[in-house]
Fold GTPase Era.
Amino acid sequence: MFKSGYVALIGKPNVGKSTFLNLMIGEKLSIVTNKPQTTRTPIKGILTTDSYQIIFIDTPGIHESQKKLNQVMLSSIKSTIEDADVCLIIADSPGNDYIKNYEDLLLKKNVILLINKADKLTKEQIDSIKAEFLIINPKKIIVTSLLRDNPKDEILNAILEELKEGPQYYAEDEISTHNVRFIVSELIRETLIENLSEELPYYVAVVIDEFKERSENLTYIKAIIYTEKDSQKAIVIGQNGSMLKKIGSSARKKIEDFLGTKVYLDLWVKVKKGWTKNEKLIKEFLSE
Ligand SMILES: Nc1nc2c(ncn2[C@@H]2O[C@H](COP(=O)(O)OP(=O)(O)OP(=O)(O)O)[C@@H](O)[C@H]2O)c(=O)[nH]1
Ligand SMILES: [Mg+2]
């Protein structure tokens, strides 16, 4: 019997959802940083074998915020849960009040609770996390550390127990529904988050303007980094262009690893005033 289904990855910012997706797929599809609110758009990763196909959907971390950009990010989460066959909730610390807002929705679903970062948690903390999620009645609870342990098989078995017979939705060699340009723009955004301090990462967006295979072994990529204000643009460029140079060379290495070719990365910084408050621009900048 061939099994298939959609698994939604749900949790607060920074709990390890993208780390989880990359571990399961074995490729870096979703960017990971030590700062919260890294993922902005649902990222699909597909795992296919002879006997099953699982489509994982990595979502932006759930948090309370009235900001327009955050609202657009969060509006996708409820529909991702509704469409999912299994909800995998990841938590890395006590304090998961948000779950009350999803109670009705989650009670109708098969829920697996993954308590991550066990390398940093006490037994008391693990027990309080378990208690917080009792209201949504998880089918299974796995306590692990995605970085330290290798929980892939244990998690896969738990998911497969909940999945039913189903079709193969995607070709077996397809690991993502996102195109290469989108993943490249995310690798540049990840590098920006790593290098910029405080709030600034939340005001940048990256759009790929040109993507050309100049030869078998050289890809030319022109990307535009948008900021909200002139002052932010100045920080991204840095003194005599030093910051942009650093970001460019670090991002280029990641893209070369991902594409397997040499890359000429042409980075430009432009100001789009107030883009994080403008729904049309948000959708344009966050699109895959
Ligand atoms: N100590 C520890 N850190 C971990 C573990 N798993 C993931 N992390 C780290 O947690 C941080 C956040 O990981 P992400 O995968 O980006 O988290 P996320 O849930 O996707 O975050 P958002 O996209 O912001 O919602 C990264 O620095 C990871 O390296 C773990 O088992 N132990
Ligand atoms: Mg993420």
Notes: The pocket of guanosine-5'-triphosphate (ligand 1) is lined by residues 11, 13-19, 32-34, 36-39, 60-61, 116-117, 119-120, 145-148 (CB under 6 Å). Residues 242-259 form the longest helix (18 residues). The chain has two domains: 3-162, 180-286. Strands lie at 3-11, 43-48, 52-58, 86-91, 110-115, 140-143, 205-215, 218-227, 262-271.
